[in-house]
Each structure stands twice: as C-alpha cells, then as structure tokens.
Amino acid sequence: MTLTMYACAHCGHWQRWFAAPPACPVCCDVRNALPEEGWDLPDEKTVGALLSADWYRPVPGVTGFRTVPSFGLGSTGWLIEADGGNVAWEAAPYYPPDALAEIERLGGVARLGASHVHGYGALWQLQRRFAPPVVAVGVRDLVWTKAFQVTWPVDERLELAPGLTVHRTGGHFPGHCVLHDARRGILFCGDALKVDLDGTVPRALSCHKAYHARIPLSHDEVRRYRSVIGALDFEAVATPFEFAAPVTTADVLRLFDHQLAGRPDTAALPLGAGR
Question: How far apart are CA 151 and CA 52, in angstroms?
Fold first, then answer.
C-alpha cells in the first residue's frame, strides 16, 4: 500500500497516511484551534499546485522561505549560512521547485532542525531533497515527527555549527528549542516569544503556553525561559513567522521578569516599557 503526504490546510502539519487522514493531531491539541469549517487535508500534489514560493534576506547570510498564498499557519523556513554547510531551521509550509532550486543554489542543506511542531512545516521535503546527515529535534517532542526521520534527538544543548547552538527551553512544548546565532546576534526563538509588529517595527512581546487558547506559561516555565534565553546575547529574533529587530536580550528579560512579578498572563508587554 502506498503512503502519501497530506497537509492540514488549517495549520500546515504534514502526515504520511494511507488516505486522507481522519483528523490533524496538531489542531486537536490544546495549543492550536480547530478548523471552524471542518477538516481540509489535501495531498502533496494538490498543495503543490496551489502554492508559489517567496523568499527574502532580512540580514546577510539568512534567507526566509514562505509560500504565496500563505498556507496553514503561514510559517517561514530559515536557511542560515554557516561554516561546514547551511543550516535549515524551521520550514516553510511547502517548497515549490523554484524554492528548492534556490536552496540548491545557496549550497543546499547540511543540517536541519526545528523548534517544535508548529515550525516543522515541510521539513520532510528538505530531508527528502538534500538528505542532511543531521536532523535535530527536541527528544521530548518525537511524538510529532512521524513525517520525517530525526537523526539527532536533542537533550539540552547541541552545537549544529560553529556559532549556531540549539538550547532546550521547554515551556510551549516539552521539547521546545531555540537556536542561537552568536555570530549574527539572532535568536531563532520558535514560539517561546510572540512579537507584535507595526509594519516591520517590533512594538511588544508576549509568551504563551497556548496562543489560540490564551493559556499562560507557569512561573516555573518562565523561570526556565529566563535561565536559558537570558544567558544568550542577541539583538534580533526570528520566530517561525517573521524576523524582528531590534529585540534584545534585555527586552526579553523584562518580559520574563514582568511575568514572574505576579499572576501569569498572555498580555503583550510594550517594548518601550523600561527601555
């Protein structure tokens, strides 16, 4: 029996299944919303016919890949140029042929990873096309990785390349990780942080256990974020959706300290507060 790749049109999660899957496990999880109009789970061929590629370079050496129109959660896949070969972190919802050709032109993918399931996108496509020996995901999140093969389960820390280090934060998901680019001063923060933008200008920060359900992190989870992320030096953040600068370590520490000062919540803290 042939297995086919199917995507959830609501969140973008991919499943390898015998026929259209009965449901999307990511949308059924408390951290995501259910599709109001029911399940729409097209196969790879259908998705490929719907989408075009788009990419941009927010800073030298970093390229973000997206789809047009937006699909699922509208995620961005980051290709980061590094010593020893490119690192792909997170993934676009799908990679049309011209996106794969551009990645090939930029040197392909030597190492591949993601913060958590909301950033997996079509990570399986990059593995299928470029066969990187390292595919790194937090060991506590392996339950979500059925669509691709993890070759390096991450415990607490993993250096993917010189100056590019994965750190487990937990919190949003048990195995949630961030990727710190020490050379460029960028934190690829996954869903540890949500940035409110005014156009391209970051205005506020928040953190959540569940974004759609507006469930805050516990104090112990925020303390874990503070101890891991607060020890990293950065001046910009890249979520699975956008690049935001300036957002600094000091800005993020203010958010965490605000969360720890009282009842936890999901409200955004203006970046002007305390700057």
Answer: 30
As a whole number of angstroms, the distance between CA 86 and CA 164 comes to 11
Residue 232, class by beta-carbon neighbours within 10 Å (0-12 exposed, 13-18 middle, 19+ buried)?
middle
Rounded to whole angstroms, the Cα distance separating 20 from 226 reads 42
Distances (CA, A) of 61 to 87, 101, 110, 149, 237: 11, 17, 15, 27, 15
Count other C-beta atoms under 10 Å from residue 199's C-beta.
6
DSSP 152-177: EEESSEEEEETTEEEEE--SSSTT-E
Give tens-digit pLDDT for 139-174: 999 999 999 999 999 999 999 999 999 999 999 999
The angle subtended at Cα 125 by Cα 114 and Cα 145, nearest 5°, is 45
**Chain mean position to CA 263:** 27
Residue 109 confidence (pLDDT) above 80? yes
Question: β-pairing, 177-181 with 164-168?
Answer: antiparallel
Angle between helix axes 249-260 and 219-229 (nearest 10 degrees) is 160
